[in-house]
Amino acid sequence: MKKKIEVEIEVCDVCGTEEGVWETCGVCQKAMCGTCVEEHALEYSTMYNMNIVCICNECEEKAKTETNPLYVLLQKLVEKQTAYKNWIEAFNAEVIELENEIAKMTGKEEKDFELL
Ligand SMILES: [Zn+2]
Ligand SMILES: [Zn+2]
Fold first, then answer.
1. How many Cβ atoms sit within 10 Å of the Cβ of residue 32?
2. Where do runs of H (alpha helix) occur along the chain?
3. How many Å lie between the centroid of ligand 2 and the Cα of residue 30?
4. Which ligand ends up closest to the CA of 63?
């Protein structure tokens, strides 16, 4: 016998595709497929707990004028990540310079590293 069953599927709130939902906006909970995330949202990745937080463009725009607690935290995180990246670049440059100076004094080969 044949029986009809009801199936619940998640569809993209932007384009309506049934291909599957890739991310949900952390603010308005809008569900988006992979393509729509690329076009209509920004993804923030965390450094240590390896999470990805997605914010849709509308919420991103709104958060610039209205305070949103999640957005405030994400901006703080981006600031820290940028500071870390700058610090590590400066640190590496100093260490490489030191190492090259030592190499020069000891007649060893100097190396030019391309880091990051
Ligand atoms: Zn979509
Ligand atoms: Zn949103």
1. 23
2. 34-40, 57-65, 69-105
3. 6
4. 2
Other Cβ atoms less than 10 A from the Cβ of 8: the count is 4
How much is the CA Rg of the chain, to the nearest whole Å? Answer: 23
Cα(7) to ligand 2 centroid in Å equals: 26
Query: Alpha-carbon distance 113 to 45, whole Å?
Result: 27
The whole-angstrom separation of Cα 46 and Cα 116 is: 18
- Give the ligand at the shortest distance from the Cα of 41: 2
What's the predicted TM-score (pTM) here?
0.72
- Taking the centre of ligand 1 as the mean of its atom positions, its distance from the CA of residue 20, in whole angstroms, is 9
- Give the separation between CA 107 and CA 69, rounded to whole angstroms: 57
pLDDT digits (tens, 9 = 90+) for 52-79: 999 999 999 999 899 999 999 999 999 9
CB atoms inside a 10 Å sphere around CB 42: 14
